[in-house]
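Section 5.1 Outputs to date
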Amino acid sequence: TETPGMRWFRYPDADEQNPLLAAAIERQRQRIPTGAIGVATGAWAGSKDLFERDPATHPLRDWIESLLEGHYQLDAWGFIVQRGQRVELHAIVAVTAGFNAFAGVYCIEYPPQSGQLIAEGTDTDKEDPVRPGDLVIFDATFRHEITEHAASARRVSIAFNAQALTEPRITKVELDAARSRVPARKGQGEV
């Protein structure tokens, strides 16, 4: 399935790492019980220092960095979404002009009837359901949201922003052209 503007990957260590990642998010939730990020309607969203604070997240962080193939500042936080909750439409506003920036979500617990990720400027209709261990990366300037969570079991994920720390290797025109034809589900490590 092609999903222009989005790249889907499968974390090869998901079965081993997901319980450790869920525990890291629970530790963050104990530290910040009311949450820290305001885009989640009713849902709990942690602070953007998850990758820095909790060593259990470092294998996932390192894998994401290897996919990005550059020097990026990664800010990551946990999300816990219960039935009836959603993430409001928003965009990453702190993107430095001319520098590549991406947003992403890694799925840890993702029951059927979880809210769907919708990003403006992309075709987010996906034939296969999202499952634990899936990672989606997309342009950080795309406004995006997660629809209402209808499952009785919670949805647990890690969201992140990746801002390039060095000048881009391609021009904005080349980046815009690439966005329109980003392959999905092809290549090693992708689903």
